[in-house]
């Protein structure tokens, strides 16, 4: 069953244009000490629970497809999100995990493909 979930995410990612609004190494627009470990944006033409596009971190392993998803909880905002990790190496997945839990202080679980 997990395989069909990731296959569906691959199809979604392939059918959507990726819009990067925060480049790797760039600072968050409101929090200058928050530096993004990878390109971060969303899948254009998709809808997440917050009404925006599905969030995506894009790594440097072109062609790998969806390698993991991050399930996040922001208790302060009372918000739950799914973030797609696309074309990420195992080290990049670990970096995103550390960024989400350490830098952003979000509850998170990473589900690997």
Can you tell me about this structure?
With 113 residues, the protein is an alpha+beta fold. It has one domain: Alpha-Beta Complex (Inorganic Pyrophosphatase). The chain contains 2 helices and 6 strands; from the N terminus they run αβββββαβ. It starts with a helix and ends with a strand. This is Inorganic pyrophosphatase.
Looking at this protein, list some descriptive labels.
six-stranded mixed β-sheet; single chain; globular; alpha+beta; 113 residues; 34% strand; Inorganic Pyrophosphatase; 6 strands; 2 helices
Summarize, please.
The chain is of the alpha+beta class. The chain is about 25% helix and about 35% strand.
Overall structural class, as computed from helix and strand content, comes to alpha+beta
Number of domains: 1
The helicity comes to 10-25%
Query: How many separate helices?
Result: 2
Distance between the termini: 11 Å
Q: What is the CATH homology-level superfamily?
A: Inorganic pyrophosphatase
The topology string of helices and strands comes to: HEEEEEHE
Number of strands: 6
Would you tell me the overall average pLDDT?
A: 94
Q: Which range does the strand content fall in?
A: 25-35%
Radius of gyration: 13 Å
Q: How are the SSEs ordered, and which strands pair?
A:
Blueprint: H1 2-15, E1 18-22, E2 39-43, E3 54-58, E4 66-74, E5 79-86, H2 90-103, E6 107-112
Parallel strand pairs: 3-5
Antiparallel strand pairs: 1-2, 2-3, 4-5, 4-6
């Amino acid at each position: 069953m997990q395989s069909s979930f990731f296959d569906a995410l691959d199809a979604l990612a392939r059918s959507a244009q990726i819009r990067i609004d925060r480049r790797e190494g760039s600072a968050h627009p409101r929090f200058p000490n928050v530096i993004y470990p990878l390109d971060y944006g969303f899948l254009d033409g998709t809808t997440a629970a917050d009404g925006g596009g599905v969030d995506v971190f894009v790594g440097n392993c072109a062609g790998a497809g969806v390698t993991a998803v991050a399930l996040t909880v922001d208790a302060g905002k009372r918000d739950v999100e799914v973030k797609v990790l696309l074309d990420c190496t195992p080290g990049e997945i670990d970096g995103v995990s550390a960024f989400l839990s350490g830098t952003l202080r979000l509850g998170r679980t990473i589900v690997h493909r």
